[in-house]
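Example pasted here:
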Amino acid sequence: MQPALHSHFPMNLHAETAYRRQSLERFFNTANRRSRARGFTLIELLVVVFIIAILVSTFLPAVQSARESARKVQCKNNLKQLGLALHSYHDAHDVFPMGSSRPAGAGSWGYAMFLMPFLDHKNVYDSVDFDNPDCCLEIRALQTATPPKADPASFPHEILICPSDINSNQILKHGTPDAYPCGDLFPGNYLGVSGDTHNGCSGTTKGNGLFFARSSTRFAHIKDGQATTLMLGERAIPKDRVWGWLICGGTECEHYISSEFGLSPGEHAAWTTGIVERFWSWHKGGGTHFVFADGSVRFLNYDINLRTLQALSTKYGKEPVVNF
């Protein structure tokens, strides 16, 4: 009986193993058939698409808002740096740079060009011959030289450009209609505040603000208080980009403007007097940035009282300014 027991055990073991193998094979074959047969129905697919659409519509505005907030902060920082550079220029020269180098017309160097050494761009300042009183002729000579020479106007200066402006970082090519013969130019957003009186974009040497044609303003001239006197403000670039050449261009409406017409939103269009004669921006929130004589930067709303804005624009008007 003992040998029969030993011979029967391996036969049962092999049978058990074979049975388990067959059971596993049947299970996996059945699962595979079910997985191949099972898929998304049209309704399920539509539900998934609908959920994705809801998520996108929910998060996209938040992403766009966050990006605009970052651009707004960058714009504010640009004006902050320009304000610090203006203070450094005054420390070195005991006067602020002139708003424009010529009394009127084309071919005027703007305040931004004189500020370049204090923005860590002395090489830009050194690239031109200031003995040439017409900056248009100087820049065209550099751009048309063989080979072309480095010039200060044919590349964007990020510190002069608001990243929210839909027309920023776009060059105006020489020969474009309505353009001065000043070469290829990048416009900018930050103009000097000339006071409370506009002069038809023809230029003035008698502004009651800090920057105008051939101005020579000092801190000592600011009798209204540095914290309540505007230096620079933000103005959007017109669609055709023929105004705002901060390096070289005209004078009023190019390098500086007044506050006579107050603040209000503009439009994405070719230049009109309404677009270029006042400060405005593409920022959300209904307003635009200014840097004050004390170096602080504030976002002023379009609904600011006109008399208050004009009082902020003058340096010695002695107007009381509160709650702005």
In short: The helical segments are 2-37, 42-93, 111-115, 122-125, 135-143, 273-276, 306-313. Residues 1-11 have pLDDT under 50 and may be disordered. The CA atoms of residues 253 and 285 lie 24 Å apart.
